[in-house]
Amino acid sequence: MHKKLLARFGLATIGVLAGALLAAGPASASPTVLKPPALPGVAPLPGPVAAHATPSPTMGLLRVSPEQGVAGTPITISGTHLPPLAAVELTWSTANVTWVVDPEPDTVNYLGRSATNFAVVIDKLTTSASGSFTVKLDVPDDWGGIHDIYAVVGGVEEAHGGFVVTRSVTVSPTSGPIGTPITITYTGLGSELYPGGGALLWDNHYVGEMTGNWTRGTARVTIRAAGPVGPHLIEVGDAISFLYLNLPQSPLPFANGATATFTTTADDGPPAPSIDWPAAVAPTVSARTTLAASGLATSSGVDASLSATSGPVDERIGLTATGLTPGAPVEAEWSTVVGSRVDCTSVCWSFVTVPLASATAQPGTTAMHITVPDGLGGWHVVQLSERGKVVAQVPFYVKESLVGRGVSSVVVKQGQPFTVHLKGVGWTQLDNTVAVDYDNSYVGYGCGFNSNGDVVLRLHATGAPGTHIIDIYPMLYTASPSFANTPYGMVPVLSYAEDDPALALGYQLPAFRLAITVVA
Questions:
Q1: What residues contact 194, with CB distance under 8 A and at least 6 apart?
Q2: Would you call the peptide bond into 173 cis, given omega within 30 degrees of 0 as the criterion?
């Protein structure tokens, strides 16, 4: 292994790290279109998927009134000059949108998003003897933007109309002291790239991005009230990460966004540190970093299990195994990586193993305790070896955590530095970085790969004397290696709880909620 990689860990650890199992680094991407996890409260498709239909050479016109509005708006659809007494299917254009990644044994590459367009049936009816119809419906709870509506007769699109689903924003609550959690719901995000993301501002300061790929255009996020006491303007608008300020002049003038006011009522002192975890969902991808079959003894007959499948660094967990060779020594090792993404062009990181514990199987069964290494977060593997051969392996997920109360000091003088300390930050493009907001203003990010999961964020106390909040969010890293068409990178992912590609791979990336008191 390269000496430069080992130097960070100190002499005591160099002897612990085994030789590199496999040289790793950026590789050509192999896209995996993620199946969305089952999330509560997501609107279903507006109807059954419609069969393929062909356009009529004499396409008629459907009248839709009104022509735009939010989901749930009552509308009237009318058609004339259609075949008399004909069965008609009304179809509505929609899409499924998801994230795209490349899961590799040594990392996960973020590759962007994917949209599949199709139509669904929203009503079935029969025309009159004169070939006309009128129907009243409510606009489906669906993506924002333009939706085509067709009257289909016998597999032919005989008439065409459309409706524009516009945006809506709700804020709850609308007042409270500094640190109050504020839920902001933005509906009507589009299925395409440009209208598919929203930017959130607090008093003209950029807070982060909102997406709704897995929630069919609805983004639900939580930020916290910041000072000073008084009214604050919340603005949400369409964007690819940052706000598109002249949307009325864009090709998407319907992406209207909205503003709202939150009134900060009091400064009751800094709230206690907390961690907001994303939705607990079943992953849809089984791939786990460092879970490689190479070197695993086939048909070993050994079964291993852990007393917990996830936890922070330094947590003590139980390991049991059956089917081992009686009287044989058994080694438990931790599979991880070391390296860096900075200016990464060739061999940038490598697999390594860390010894955890050893025992002797008596009779063919062993039970021991291991301590989760103080290192990188994310998916790792505990391996059991007999006589140098790996006979079993069990995945374990290392969760991000705070060191102590998170901040080096709760009371800081104006202009003075302070630090925020995290453990268990990972190394993939999904979890190797965290984004930092100070008083709802994005100030930068920290990376945990080169520092083996240990992240010390260096900040300065600014603003008037009183309570100031620090919120740390997940981030999609797109700097190195970088791939084409990877939007929404390098900014706070405010919608991490429901719409983060990491969820499909079993990652649980939280938001950290901290605060300090600034004194003169």
A1: 238, 240, 244, 250, 252, 255
A2: yes
Question: For 102-129, b where at least 16 C-beta lie within 10 A, e where not — what string?
Answer: bbbbbbbbbbbbbeeeebbbbbebebee
For residues 61 and 159, state if they share a domain: yes
Residue 190: inside a domain: yes
| In the predicted structure, residue 255 carries a pLDDT above the cut 80 | no
Q: Which of 1-15, 29-43, 378-392 has the lowest mean pLDDT?
A: 1-15
Summarize pLDDT for 277-303 with one digit per residue, the tens.
999 999 999 999 998 765 565 566 888
- Say if 503 falls within a structural domain: no
List the Cα angle 463/469/470 in 5-degree steps. 110
Measure the N-to-C terminal CA separation of the chain; round to a whole number of Å: 50
pLDDT digits (tens, 9 = 90+) for 455-506: 999 999 999 999 999 999 999 999 888 888 899 999 999 999 999 999 999 9
Give CA torsion, residues 418, 422, 423, 428, to 10 deg.
-120
Whether this prediction's pTM lies above 0.85 is answered by: yes
**508 in a structural domain:** no
Structure tokens belonging to residue 482 = 């970088």
Stated as kind and residue range, the H or E segment containing 195 is none
Q: Which of 365, 398, 431 is the last residue of a domain?
A: 398
Average pLDDT over residues 308-327: 92
**Domain membership of residue 218 as a residue range:** 167-268
Query: Which amino acid is residue 374, in one-letter code?
Result: D
Query: What angle (nearest 5°) sits at the alpha carbon of residue 451, between those of residues 450 and 457?
Result: 115
What is the band of 21 on the pLDDT scale with cuts at 50, 70, 90?
very low
Q: Quick one: which of 483, 501, 487 has its CA closest to 27?
A: 483
What value, to the nearest 5°, has the Cα angle with vertex 194 and ends 207 and 44? 90
CATH of the domain at 376: 2.60.40.230
Q: Give me the CATH number covering residue 78.
A: 2.60.40.1930
The answer to whether residue 486 is domain-embedded is no
Number of H helices, E strands in the chain: 2, 36
The C-alpha angle 184, 497, 335, rounded to 5 degrees, equals 155
